[in-house]
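Data availability excerpt. The first of two example chains:
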Amino acid sequence: MAATRRLLAVLLPLAWARARLAGGAGGWQAGDVPEEQRCTVERADGSMSPALFLQRFAFSRPVILRGVTDNSAFRALCTRQKLLAAFGERLVRLSTANTYSYRKVDVPFQEYVERLLKPQDPAALGSDTLYFFGDNNFTEWGSLFQHYVPPPFRIPGTSGAYSFGIAGSGSGVPFHWHGPGYSEVIFGRKRWFLYPPDKTPHFHPNETTLAWLQHTYPTLPPAERPLECTIRPGEVLYFPDRWWHATLNLDTSVFISTFLG
């Protein structure tokens, strides 16, 4: 009995700490996937001029931007409780988390949050993993998107399109590339792996990012490892055109990207 009390004295504070962490993150669950040992993506802040952004980053390399947006109002609308109240009955389109061939599934948002939003199974294939990101109807989600403040830096000749997502700990999208864009985390943490266009990463298109991190990443020589970083609320990652990238949500994460096309 005394041993049981001692064990509870250790476990209960940990459980309460986890509950406070989850409650303090908009009701979304914290995870235990590790961050990188060292961030290798450059950082800049809101004092950078648009001209300097174009010169140093827009066409050449990624950058983590701090203090360039204030999305506290948007964040307040993205708690688990408020999103379920506003959009619970709406259909959301889920995609499989693989690189080239996507299967689409439509489910009510409440069903996704309560039944499908869970930590990534390390043994699951990307084609068996459903991911909510990218297929957002602007008309249906417009009342939410109008509160989002996008990053201020623009690339001439482009306009922005939003993609909103919510995904569980350990989930993510394996390596792929497209046009330039921004990614901002509203709740949680998102880890990124990036390669320049001329350096194709070694990966299997149907392997999840978590499986790649566990099996392939440790075998890479230092010179073949990607740029990597973890972004948190209040930070925005910019990635240039055609840069390979894979993402890994370290917690249940709410995030939004602005694609420049």
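And the second chain:
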Amino acid sequence: MSELEKVQLGFIGAGNMAQAMAFGFVKTGLVTADRVMASAPSDKNLVKWQEKGMKTTNVNSEVMKDCNMVFLACKPYQLGDVLAEVKSEVTKDKLLVSVIAGMDIKFIEDNIGKECRVIRVMPSTPCLVLAGVSSYCGNSLVTDLDKQLVELFLSKVGMCFEIQERLMNAAAICCGAVPAFLFSAVDALADGSVMVGMQRDIAIKIAANNLIGAGKMILETGLHPGQLKDNICSPNGATIRGIHALEKGGFRDCLISGIEAGVKRAESMSKD
């Protein structure tokens, strides 16, 4: 039996990020639904898991007991209580994978109170459609096989990068939060298109597909995004007029500030 075939996936916390990852993993065929288990305090967030044939429970320690690769996906302020509840079930054969923004590996190690293998991951919800972006790092007990396993899962639902833990709060925003920024941009672009006469459903599709196309051009051409922008801006044309209006509104400054504000908040979460 391969290492992949031995994996029993657990999710402590069953919200949007956990769903995006778990449902994405199953969609790829890496695991079957019956090898996935999730816990939540109430059944509200577990209905979708049950509909997909996944196991569910209201007891977090049951997930830790029955699974060997356990994703910690609760709210940051809940993590201390969750670890106190499950630590008796943590053994050397368990790989803990935290997807909780702002909470470092040391916090998990200290609250488990014994040696444990911990990998910290910052994913994004587009994992659900196999287009996520994730970063990860691990503690000294994590093996090369552990990393390979995590990379296998994350790369099947998008792309992933191993980084230093000091950059994980930045990754929480650059990976995890940026889709929210882009969803807002698509919504605003659709509003603008409606304002000039486009139908709402068509406007959303145009904006979303332009987002996909622009991303693919950056990745596949290797050209700097500024160069790709310049290639569209004809002298005294409509595009450069639109760019000018965006710059007057502080478009790029707002995006930079959004990243900075998000990272500062991620850094403060462990103190809450």
